[in-house]
Amino acid sequence: MLRRERWRLLLVFIVVVAALITVFPIKGRIRLGLDLKGGAHIVLQAKGTPENPLTGDSVERLLAVLRNRVDQYGVSEPVIQRVGSDRIIVDLPGVEDPQAALELIGKTALLEFRPVLSVSSQVPAAPHRENYDSEESFQRAQERWQEAKDEIDALALQMEERQKDDPSLYVARDERGTVYLLGGIAVTGRDLQDAKTNYDNLGRSVVSLKFNSEGTKLFDTATKENVGNQLAILLDGAVISAPVVQERISGGQAQISGKFTPAEAQRLSIMLRAGALPVPVEILENRSVGPTLGSDSIASGLRAGLIGAGLVVLFMLVYYRLLGIAADCALGVSMLLLFAGLVSLHATLTLPGIAGIILTIGMAVDGNILIFERIREERRAGKTPMAAIDSGFRKALTTILDANITTLIAAAVLYYFGSGPIRGFAVTLSIGIVASVFSAIIVTRVLVSVLAGNRRSSWLV
Amino acid sequence: MFAKKVFNLDFMKYKKVAMLLSGILLLLSLGLLLVRGLNLGIDFSGGVLVQVELSKPVSVGDLRDVLRDGGFAGSTIQAYGEKGIIIRVAADSDEAQLKVLEVLRQKDSDLKLLRLEKVGPVVGKQLRQEAIIATVIALVGILAYITFRFRFRFALVSVAALVHDTLITLGVFSLLGREISLPFVAAILTLVGYSLNDTIVVLDRVRENWKDYRPLGLDGMLNKSVNQTFSRTINTSLTTFLPVCALFLFGGPVIADFSLALLVGILVGTYSSIYVAAALLSEWYSRYPAKS
User: Fold this and answer.
1) Fewest Cβ atoms closer than 10 Å to its Cβ: which of A156, A167, A283, B223?
2) Which backbone phi and psi does B96 adopt, to 5 degrees?
């Protein structure tokens, strides 16, 4: 073995040991993207209104409220960052219920108490055909239902007319379609001190509120003036409930009972504690993956990768025999280096990233194939095995570099323009290319030299 | 045990046939793209995606009826595995995705929500623009690199080969009506790199064999180059094809379209590195010989 080969062998040895130390134990060392770990990625656009224009300050307050909500919801390692002047990215890893996360982030949660000035009757439930004996009676029921609805709509129009005359009034509906004409704002969520989830004596989930001193005063006045009347509780402009005020409440305590599930009540109280969003937001983009899909993706990616790698290893062995062993070892080293690269660059592994790794399995042996084909050609041209190996490696080198640099250019562009998962793909592809070029021109070379060194080189190539 | 196979095939004899075939495929693809267009996924067109696992198998037809009654007539439904369902709706409101879920829950109250995505039209448009800009920049960068390393004509024929591969892959996707999503763009750009990788290996050999231009003639020299790299071209295509095939079959529904694009691209790319690039060079140099 030449002295140069010894140095190469040492280099390979050091690199492999370093990579092994970096990678093992693999558990927990590789950062997983939201699409593998499960979680929600939400992009918000802050929306200014004429009365409430968007300023740097309001976006900052928006961030603070969002952080507060997310912290109280109990998400580990959330990312909440501002992009540009008015966009906010919220990443919530490991969130089990994407629907809940969306509500928690996207709801303004503006709480208002307003006295009820007048109220329509309830919209009755639409008739169902099954409940009627004949087509005729069903038709009649439908007509009656339509009449009732039209009546309420007419009333709503009247109320809106009155609202035009007096802008402090407000017309709102509840979820069952009942229309309310409401007086001016009595108290808002800004005057809250605390909000908690509780159960009332019927066992239903409720949110109990505690006002601060200012809020206590306002609530006291509102209840005093409206004994015997309804006081509506509105969230983001919709009526949640409108209980009748039985007596004046001066202790600063109130209770919202709607038809909440315990989880909904929990979220509402978090949002009320954290405060309303200073400006409304629109959800521009939202990608949520449940944890089961993420682990399924990892499992199927792993299976596809192992099958793919197995096929490639087998092919190289069958086609190139002894040289194939060298190529398969080099493939192993490139995979090891790829994972070591991911760990040490703190790169995030995503589902397209796994695809990038699997693609790399195929491309990694390309360098070896180029070299081996070249060695065979040199042998056919009549060179001795050692000379053929030497010039095979030398001549294949520029081809390998040229062929891989173009793919690297594409990967770099992907990294620059892509986001999230795509960026993960670009990263694994780039690391994979570098690792496989190193393996082909250094690792394979050492292995082939070792194999060729024991005098049976003519058998080798 | 060396020198198993020495190829000596007359590739250039069929260059006219190959160019005709490529021409027809390209025209078909362009026609498909113009007439049928691409099935842009919610990443680019904006919309809502809901992926659920049902508690019991339900037929797609049933689900379509349920969704239509719920007001989502234009939704696409993709079933995978036994109980997996992916639904895409063009609607754009925060309520739409919750409503789709609600409609589904009426049909199957025990379903498991796996994935929820919403892309607003603003973001969709932005992603579309970024994808186009990224592709253009990648092409220009690669063209510049090959011009720097080889000759300008080489660069142009290799870009022609990769445009050929990309257009035909897009054509196949248009034909199959498969969805174009963000990972698809990644697949296309990877394809661009891969297609070039193949072409460059052939062109690299052409450059090396340039000295044989006089004794062998243009087509003889090109034939020699293609033959010398032939077993490499086939082997590399095979070793890339096998893992991607495994990914397509076993990688799960989320990544299937991505792998399909790569599979088509590898097949077309292998063909184009032999025929498109070399055949174009043959035509070009025989009509306008290089000034030496």
Assistant:
1) A167
2) -55, -45
